[in-house]
Amino acid sequence: MKKTVLTLLAFNILALNFMKADEGMWLPMLLKNNYAEMQRLGLKLTPEQLYDINNASLKDAIVWFNGGCTAEIVSDKGLLFTNHHCGYASIANHSTASDNILDNGFWAKSFAEEKENSNMWASVLIRMEDVSDRVNKALAGVDIKKQDSVKQATFKAIQKEATEKTTYEASVKSFFKDNAYYLFVFEKFTDIRLVAAPPQSIGKFGGDTDNWMWPRHTGDFSIFRIYANKDNKPAPYSKDNVPYKPKKFLNVSIKGLQDGDFTMVYGFPGRTNRYETSFGIQLAVDKTNPATVELRDIRLKDWKEQMDKSDSIRLLMSSKYASIANYWKYYIGQTEQLKRLKVFEEKQNMEQKFNLWAKDKPEYSKILQTIQEAYGDYKRYAVHRTYINEAVFGSAIELYALSFADLEKALKAEKPDTAAVRKAVAEIRKDEDDFYKSFNLASEQKILASFTEMFYKNIPADQHPAYMAEIVKKYKGKTNKETFEKFAASVFKKSFLIHKADAEKFLSKPDLKELQKDPAYAYAMAFYNNFLTNIKPHLDAFAVINNTQGSKYVKALMEMNPDKKFYPDANSTLRLTYGNVKSYSPKDGVDYRYYTTLSGVMEKENPNDFEFIVPQKLKDLYKNKDFGMYADKSGDINVGFITNNDITGGNSGSPVINANGELVGLAFDGNWEAMSGDIYFDSKYKRTICVDVRYVLFMIDKFGGASNLISEMNIIR
Ligand code: ARG
Question: Which of 337, 355, 497, 571 is 20 to 30 A removed from 46 (C-alpha atoms)?
Answer without folding.
Answer: 571
